[in-house]
Amino acid sequence: MTSPRPPTPPRQGPIFIVGAPRSGTTMLQYRLRNHPRISLPTGESHFFIPLYRNQHRFGDLSRLESIRAVLQAMLAQSRNFLETDLFGLKFDVDRLAGELHAEGRHTMPAIISGVFERNARGEGKSRWGDKTPYYVMHIPKLIEWFPDAQIVHLIRDGRDVALSLFGRQHDFYVYNAYFAAEYWASYVEKGRALGAELPSAQYMEMRYEDLLATPEHTMRQLCDFLGETYSPELFAVASVDDPGKTPLVHAPLKADNAGKWRSRMSAAQVRAFESVAGDTLRELGYELTTAGTPPALAVKAAYRLHNRLLTGFWRRAKGILA
């Protein structure tokens, strides 16, 4: 008689939600942070890659002062995130440095995970994650530091992404559909190429449109990938007096939030977007409404110049107003 196989232990590696900006990663972040085991801060960390690039500057991380310097650099980079988006931890540099040093956390990933693990424990949870969209361009660095990490790449129709970028154009410096297409495609194509180098148990592509159309089925697939038990709590939402820049995260999912580009983008904008990103849209199964013919070199140059001029103007204007 064959003895029953022991249950598979739950995964403990970090979860990274990545993708092109304005692809619904915040929506997914807020849903997944409802899971009883998963801790996801509500903001974006942004400090992983700067620390990766500059780790040599901190010297010997077995020294208390070096750990303190790392925490200070994290604070200088992402003060708002560390002071307002961690709900299980007060980010006290001196106290944290002492505790991490005493625990023997003498590498950069050990220091970072020590912060996130503490935050998770403070929330009564056992697994941590992070949502910072641009990390999709740096997946190998995440895996180098956290070999047991899992990557969730959320993909949204680039034309809807363009509409969302236009709504915050002075934050992302995207001022026309041609440049929006280049911007979106660069993130999606790079993320997919890097993800293809990982085993299927470590990298998952997820459609924003699927999350809206079949939310329970899609989240069950995500939980299966993460090795977590599905929980109906994932779809709990709480209304707030000040929803901030992302009010949809505080409302139930709505299928009609997909495909808005069909009525809100002009024919010229759609043609410009599809002329750049048509192949990527097709590869992902999104229907094109034009031939997707690449524009002439002069047209490309005009779009890029337009975006560059407006970017320069608004950056100077921000500097004056700051």
Mean of the pLDDT scores?
A: 92
Low-confidence stretches: none
Query: What name is given to the CATH topology of the domain at 15-37 and 126-321?
Result: Rossmann fold
- End-to-end Cα distance, whole Å, is 74 Å
Spatially, the strands of the biggest sheet line up as 2-3-1-4-5
Structural class: alpha/beta
EC number: 2.8.2.-
GO molecular function, one term: transferase activity
Protein name: Sulfotransferase
Pfam families: Sulfotransfer_3
Model description:
It comes from Thiobacillus sedimenti. This is Sulfotransferase. This protein is an alpha/beta fold and 322 residues long. It has helices at 25-32, 48-54, 64-84, 93-102, 108-122, 139-145, 158-167, 169-172, 177-195, 208-213, 215-226, 261-264, 267-283, 297-321, and strands at residues 15-18, 38-39, 127-131, 150-155, 203-207. It has a domain at 15-37 and 126-321: P-loop containing nucleotide triphosphate hydrolases (Rossmann fold). The chain contains 14 helices and five strands. It has a five-stranded parallel sheet with strand order 2-3-1-4-5, with helices on both faces. Helix 9 packs parallel to helix 13 (267-283).
Summarize the model shown.
The chain is an alpha/beta fold and 322 residues long. 51% of the residues lie in helices and 7% in strands.
Describe the structure using short key phrases.
322 residues; alpha/beta; Rossmann fold; five-stranded parallel β-sheet; 5 strands; globular
Task: Summarize the topology.
Blueprint: E1 15-18, H1 25-32, E2 38-39, H2 48-54, H3 64-84, H4 93-102, H5 108-122, E3 127-131, H6 139-145, E4 150-155, H7 158-167, H8 169-172, H9 177-195, E5 203-207, H10 208-213, H11 215-226, H12 261-264, H13 267-283, H14 297-321
EC number: 2.8.2.-
Keywords: Transferase
GO molecular function: transferase activity
